[in-house]
Write a structure and sequence with these properties.
homodimer; alpha/beta; five-stranded parallel beta sheet; 9 helices; 13 strands
Chain lengths: 241, 241
Amino acid sequence: MIYVIGTGPGDFKYITPDALEALNKCEIISGYEKYINLIKNNFPDKIFKIYSMRQEIKRCEDALKLSRENKIIGLISGGDSGIYGMAGLILELANNNDKIKIIPGLTSAVCAAGILGAPLTNDFAVISLSDLLTPIEIINRRLEILSAGDFVTCIYNPGSKTRTENFKTACEIMLKYKSPDTPCGYVKNISRPGEFCEIMKLSEIKNLKPDMNYLIIIGNSQTYIKNNKLITPRGYIKKGA
Amino acid sequence: MIYVIGTGPGDFKYITPDALEALNKCEIISGYEKYINLIKNNFPDKIFKIYSMRQEIKRCEDALKLSRENKIIGLISGGDSGIYGMAGLILELANNNDKIKIIPGLTSAVCAAGILGAPLTNDFAVISLSDLLTPIEIINRRLEILSAGDFVTCIYNPGSKTRTENFKTACEIMLKYKSPDTPCGYVKNISRPGEFCEIMKLSEIKNLKPDMNYLIIIGNSQTYIKNNKLITPRGYIKKGA
């Protein structure tokens, strides 16, 4: 049995009872070092299998092998395992007899939105700027489309040590369609030590040098700032509902 | 003090410890009837203020008034309060002295994705088909853009008793750009009595008559079905990571 578990953005207060129950059932908990470290001390009796980045296929193959030997495995992802996490890959590699259950988790866009205000109250999109697996041309084309369509946009993986230019290019693309005054914001290290957030304009955020610990939200033409919170109105006040 | 709390899709196992702690602190819990009923029995000592649909402004104004009288109020939304919930409206109506804390919740797109497989493993968008607050022309234009851009799309509020045509029109728009064989699926009554899901093709799902209790996910050109699960690959296998 494999539980594919989203452990939320960091703090234990964001792990659902469903995820906690699944973690407790596991004999072996497997995942990327950073996410294992966030939960390890709370499960002193478990065996942990720690993997580095770019070992995703091996991580899933090992989990499938152990599960076929009747072990109960927890394959964890930070946030939700279905959003840039391990849920897709394990289902791609599994066969019809493998028992796999996906346990949803709080993804960082939702947590970041609540910290910044309410920027996702209307239609929005989620995009990753990591070009490890998706060609940068496709990422940039999607950014063009979302900007032309006036979507509020949540940006995952905006940068890393070696990937420093994608976010600046993304902002330049968005600035072709969106006002430089478009309100936006970021949260760094959501619910982890060093959590920090800031609200600013699109023309300002383009100078940010974000790493993998940033979640960035870019507003649309309706988004505004009130009491230092980002708000995208749903339309109740305009309608007088 | 107002806690704006996302109570998840229904079952208590999806309410985070953070949300539960906030609910326990409240003297008065306020919300739409359907969401109050899902949690009421677990909080026998609380005062509940139950509202119908289209009383959203009154609901927020009442909460602000009570909070200014030093009451502790919980304003609840199903799922996450920032995604088509009450977080935006309360921040719009609040002034700088009002104390408001947004407590994130599991939104139904994330839960539905886990039930259907892993359709959101790559970039995706979230759209509501309710034209109560957003003109149908804008909704349909956004659908055109998302389909042309090959985004996996999560559809909230696909229909209601009086609103039966928007979903069919949405499918017709998507079929202009997407293959009729595009894999998609829906989950009805997520984590509530009568939960039911189905995976099918875009050409088939257009005949569905969904109501407000459906969450629908339409795949992109990469989405496929394996072992009766929807999968949108992240790209690990293609890359050989």
